[in-house]
Automatic annotation (TrEMBL):
It is found in: Cytoplasm; Nucleus. This is Translin. GO terms for biological process: RNA metabolic process. CDD domains: Translin. Belongs to the translin family. It comes from Antrostomus carolinensis (Chuck-will's-widow). It comes from the Eukaryota. Its main location: cytoplasm.
């Protein structure tokens, strides 16, 4: 995993170059006029950066750190920037991918990762619940988070029923 993360980080160099070129194609004060042209790409890049950071440290990447990885600004006033909604959408995509990773980890015999993912996703869900989201695309994506939480809870429950989480939590007697 560390080698794959390092390789992914190298590819962000190309992304920075492309975004630097994009910045020159329109007036700085017209960011939102053209925002729809790159919105989806930025959301996907946020997801990729967040996934790499999660795999490296099992933490949530900040918006400022993503902006730095991508070579763009975090603050709106400073020009081409990472919009907060794009950041949040990318983070929600991370949650969906982590739900898949939890299932795949069990298949690969890693019974502790789903427990750690569950803790992370529950904290993420708690954070999103604090937001007052309007009835827009971000709200709809957030509504999908509850299904990711449920999927991960089912994995953790299965591990518990089968006695496999004892090994993951440090207890003795876990059977494979």
């Amino acid at each position: 995993v560390p080698k794959k993360c390092q390789k992914a980080r190298e590819h962000f160099g190309t992304v920075r170059t492309q975004l630097e070129s994009l910045k020159t194609k329109f007036p700085a004060d017209q960011y939102y006029r053209f925002h729809e042209h790159w919105r989806f790409v930025l959301q996907r890049l946020v997801f990729l950066a967040a996934f790499v950071v999660y795999l490296e440290s099992e933490t949530l990447v900040t918006r400022e750190a993503v902006a730095e990885i991508l070579g763009i600004e975090a603050d709106r006033e400073r020009g081409f920037h990472l919009d907060i909604e794009d950041y949040l959408s990318g983070v929600l995509t991370l949650a969906s991918e982590l739900a898949r990773l939890a299932v795949n980890s069990v298949t690969a015999g890693d019974y502790s990762r789903p427990l750690r993912i569950s803790t992370f996703i529950n904290e993420l869900d708690s954070g999103f619940r604090l937001l007052n989201l309007k009835n827009d695309s971000l709200r709809k994506r957030y509504d999908g988070l509850k299904y990711d939480v449920k999927k991960i809870e089912e994995v953790v429950y299965d591990l518990s029923i089968r006695g496999l989480n004892k090994e993951a939590t440090g207890g003795a007697g876990g059977e494979k």
